[in-house]
């Protein structure tokens, strides 16, 4: 397991290095394209690429930091650093959007002529294709190895590809109509789009930092808890998840039989945890708060030889609902909602 984790960390770091190198090369290409065309739309793309370079440096640093194991100062590990990287990236994109709008508005008012449009378009198309491929690569690696920083970078870089398409369309119109004011107008639109996009990344990062409930995570855990339940695991409620990058700390209240000893309950809960975590998308741990059934869950308990049963088992366990799983109170499962 340790060797696998080191291998995955190495892959994330390599992806971060590739992202930084490509961002530096494309930044040079885009500023060269602006230098020969004096296009503010291309300038907006080049300014955005500066944020790509900065955020690639931050993401790479964060991927390295988040790989560190938990220690005395950080008992929950360093994984949340990835969420800070995403938040930083969102803020940097918003700032770039504001700069682009301000610069392009000035150009729209003062006017200007474009030069070397053909070569400029070729360079922008090349940069856009590279960004599209890089974005897909980063999102794929980030999703496969659970790196929020790489996923955020991939999403941002892929948006650069769409930005390049908008720039090309604007330059083609300018080339054939001579309406040079369309160039800064296109840049203003792109700046506004960047500002919105950065805001969305910042919003999502804020949710991660505040440990807002992740519907996908909750649904997966509900499915795994039901899948691996064995005799004696009666019910669950009040599940909470602390997401520390790719490592999740899960807290769940679990109903167990009144007559289990502390030792036996501990061994069974550890066995159950291993079954669930081994099947979970993320790395993690589960802390069970063990609640004695107190004869409240006889209808959903399938233990045949139970010395304290006061009601018969209903015959099949009702489906575990998200509401039941996340409720802070020990709700009774609706018996009418039976599944086979």
List the helices and strands and how they pair.
Elements: H1 2-37, H2 40-66, H3 81-110, H4 117-144, H5 148-177, H6 182-209, H7 215-228, E1 235-244, E2 247-256, H8 262-278, E3 283-292, H9 322-326
Helix pairs in contact: 1-2, 1-4, 2-3, 2-5, 2-6, 3-5, 3-6, 4-5, 5-6
What can you see in these coordinates?
The protein is mainly alpha-helical and 340 residues long. The protein folds into 2 domains: 2-209, Alpha-lytic protease prodomain-like, CATH 1.20.1510; 215-326, Cation efflux protein, cytoplasmic domain (Alpha-Beta Plaits), CATH 3.30.70. Helix content is 63%, strand content 9%. The chain has 9 helices and 3 strands. Strands 1-2-3 form a 3-stranded mixed beta sheet. α2 runs antiparallel to α3 (81-110). The longest helix is centred in the first third of the chain and has 36 residues, at 2-37. It is elongated, with a radius of gyration of 27 Å.
């Amino acid at each position: 397991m340790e060797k696998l984790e080191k291998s995955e960390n190495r892959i994330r770091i390599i992806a971060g290095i590739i992202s930084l190198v490509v961002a530096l090369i494309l930044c040079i290409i885009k500023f060269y394209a602006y230098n020969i065309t004096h296009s503010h739309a291309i300038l907006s793309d080049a300014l955005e690429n500066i944020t790509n370079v900065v955020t690639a440096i931050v993401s790479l640093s964060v991927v390295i930091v988040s790989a560190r194991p938990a220690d005395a100062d950080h008992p929950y590990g360093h994984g949340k650093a990835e969420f800070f990287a995403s938040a930083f990236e969102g803020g940097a994109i918003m700032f770039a959007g504001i700069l682009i709008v301000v610069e392009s508005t000035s150009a729209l008012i003062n006017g200007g002529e474009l030069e070397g449009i053909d070569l400029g378009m070729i360079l922008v198309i090349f940069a856009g294709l590279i960004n599209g491929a890089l974005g897909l690569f980063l999102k794929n690696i980030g999703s496969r190895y659970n790196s929020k920083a790489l996923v955020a970078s991939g999403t941002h870089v892929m948006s650069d590809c769409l930005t390049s398409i908008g720039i090309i369309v604007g330059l083609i119109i300018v080339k054939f109509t001579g309406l040079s004011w369309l160039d800064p107008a296109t840049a203003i639109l792109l700046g506004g789009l960047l500002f919105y996009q950065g805001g969305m990344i910042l919003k999502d990062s804020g949710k991660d930092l505040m440990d807002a409930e992740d519907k996908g995570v909750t649904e997966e855990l509900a499915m795994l808890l039901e899948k691996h339940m064995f005799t004696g695991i009666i019910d669950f409620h009040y599940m909470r998840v602390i997401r520390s990058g790719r490592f999740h700390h899960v807290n769940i209240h679990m109903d167990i039989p009144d007559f289990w000893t502390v030792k036996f309950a501990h061994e069974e809960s550890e066995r159950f945890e291993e079954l669930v975590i081994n099947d979970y998308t993320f790395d993690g741990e589960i802390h069970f708060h063990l609640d004695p059934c107190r004869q409240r869950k006889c209808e959903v308990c399938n233990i045949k030889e139970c010395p304290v049963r006061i009601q018969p088992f209903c015959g099949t366990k009702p489906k575990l609902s998200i509401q039941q799983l996340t409720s802070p109170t020990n709700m009774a499962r609706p018996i009418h909602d039976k599944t086979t």
